Amino acid sequence: MNPPLTNRVALITGAGRGIGRAIALAFAAAGARLGLTARTMAELDEVVGRIRSAGGNAVAFPADLSDRQVPRKLVADVQQALGPVEILVNNAGVGSSANPRPLVEFDDDFWDLSLAVNLTAPYLLCKAVLPEMLARRWGRIITIASINGKIGSLHGAAYAASKHGVLGLTRTLALEVAAHGVTVNAICPGPVHTMMNDRRIEYDAQRRGVSFADQESGLTPLGRRLEPEEIAPLAVYLASEAAAAVVGQALNIDGGVLMTG
């Protein structure tokens, strides 16, 4: 029996580290041919090298998704190298940890950057991949959102607003394309052990006057953060034939932080 994503062409953004890297490795193991993008070429080279050394097929496309001209060119470049994009994983994001502030003091440029990467880039990438998906009557769009797409984020207005927005985009697009063989869903991670989340924990620990370890252990009922590799299996499932009836969902993987949808 072939792996579930055999020969599917997938584009994964933010694939150089963290959740995106874990999804890239899992998709490669599941047989996909991968276009991987991030801003840092050295990180992409490491992921691509690991995939190729295991017999997989991956190509690096360094890109800055805050530039509105990049998404369409990126999709065209991936299509030229690998074929039409059949699976899109919108993972690249700007976290609140990069510049956390109360709203009254919030940095307007950081607001614009956060919405550009977290919301506008997925919107533009969806627009770019959809014509081929609709023509072929098969496609999968998966966005890595956040539980902060369902609840607020203290001192993280741009992050929470962008993640709430991307869930609205997910649900609306899902309604538009479900009858045409294309599914659109989101994954909402809780706190994940990443460099971005490390900085957020450091900020909150300092703000509350507690240790990093105490702040981290209280984040989930599990008493720990999730690992990026714990997010990837759901992405593989949503990209597969088995998930054809999963439409417009925002699925939590959060260690029990939210126990309702």
Here the CATH topology equals: Rossmann fold
Helix content: 40-55%
SS-derived structural category: alpha/beta
Q: CATH H level: which superfamily?
A: NAD(P)-binding Rossmann-like Domain
Strand content: 5-15%
**Per CATH, which architecture?**
3-Layer(aba) Sandwich
* Order of strands in the sheet with most strands: 3-2-1-4-5-6-7
> What series of H and E elements makes up the topology?
EHEHEHEHEHEHHHE
Q: From the alpha-carbon coordinates, what is the Rg to the nearest angstrom? A: 18 Å
Mean pLDDT rating:
97
Number of helices: 8
Distance from N terminus to C terminus (CA atoms, Å) equals: 34 Å
Q: Can you walk me through this structure?
A:
By secondary structure, this protein is α/β, with parallel strands linked by helices. The chain has one domain (9-190, 226-252): 3-Layer(aba) Sandwich (Rossmann fold). It is built from 8 helices and 7 strands. It has a 7-stranded parallel beta sheet with strand order 3-2-1-4-5-6-7, with helices on both faces. Helix 1 (18-29) links the parallel strand 1 and strand 2. The longest helix is centred in the middle third of the chain and has 29 residues, at 108-136. The mean pLDDT is 97.
